[in-house]
Amino acid sequence: GSDEALEEVFVQTRTELLTPFVGAGQTDHALVLAERYKDFQILVQLCEQQGNTAKLNQYGKQYGDEFTKFMFEWYLHEGKRAKLLEQPAQQNVPLQSFLKSHDRLSWLHSLHLSDFPAAFSTLHALGQSEDRIVHRRKTLLSLAKLAQLACDQPPAPEQVEGINRQLMLIDYQNDLPANVVERVLQREHVDATHMRPYSAEELVNLFLEDDSTGPSSLHGIVCALEIIHAFLANTAPAESVRRLQRSVYEAALLRDENMWKALSGDEPMASIKSSVFVQALSDARQQGISLDLPDASVLLTNDRLRALAVTNKKFLHFVRLACEVVTA
């Protein structure tokens, strides 16, 4: 209403009238007027310039919560976060209350007070909600784990397990092949330090984008199967899990596209056993991962694999042999 508008004009005019005294070096005169007219901005500014912490504490007692809250806001606005967190012990309660709406700082204050459960809770929530930068999520979750270790009463096991799983997923993301990372950065117009955290399903598809050959190609297929097993098999809809698995099997076959094209009926088993498909799936099976392999004919619905079956009439037979080797 009109009272609020009047108050706003008063505050603005007050600071405009007092600022020239500060500029002219008449700080004592400015302080006297600022105290009389409660110009908290001038009071905090001058005390900070003079390093007069005792005076700030005195104003806190004199003007109460209104001044203290203004001082905290001023530190935040001026980027003096360290100063904000280095408040004397008598400010702990008001500072804790103020920081409730500033989670990214409140956990530091909780650590300062050795309130490790509060620090854990804040860091855990921040880590879970961090969806813009993967490195930041990893740092927050790792700090949450450290805070959890310092708690007298450890948090619920499922919370700790949840953090471990999220960190494991980030480890998989950090393991993405360089050629895939480069492609992703170009697609999303970011640099490596600003990669976002990817979901389990996104990571599976990214590992399948790898077009390199050799050990990293095999490793990517195994990683994709591990992610499906650890993060999706018990939570995602069964049909979507089967679809993802099929994508992995198709990608594994295509890693050796040239080999399949040239393979003949004479002694094919050595080549089949050394294929990425057999090596990766056998490795996954040894880890206790359920493969749920479909019939070989289902895998040949992929266009490139269908083309292979046209080029090499025995391809379907070879894929069946490969599946038998894996499941033997």
Shape: elongated
Point out poorly predicted stretches. none
Radius of gyration: 31 Å
Secondary structure: number of strands: 0
Q: Helix content range of the residues, please?
A: over 70%
How much of the sequence lies in strands comes to under 5%
The secondary structure category is mainly alpha
Distance between the termini: 81 Å
Largest sheet data: none
How many helical stretches?
21
Give the topology string: H per helix, E per strand. HHHHHHHHHHHHHHHHHHHHH
Q: Mean pLDDT, rounded to whole units?
A: 93
Structure described in brief:
With 328 residues, the chain is mainly alpha-helical. The protein is 74% helix and 0% strand. The chain has helices at residues 2-23, 27-36, 40-50, 53-63, 65-77, 81-85, 92-99, 103-112, 116-129, 134-150, 157-174, 178-188, 200-208, 215-232, 238-254, 257-262, 269-273, 276-286, 296-299, 303-311, 315-327.
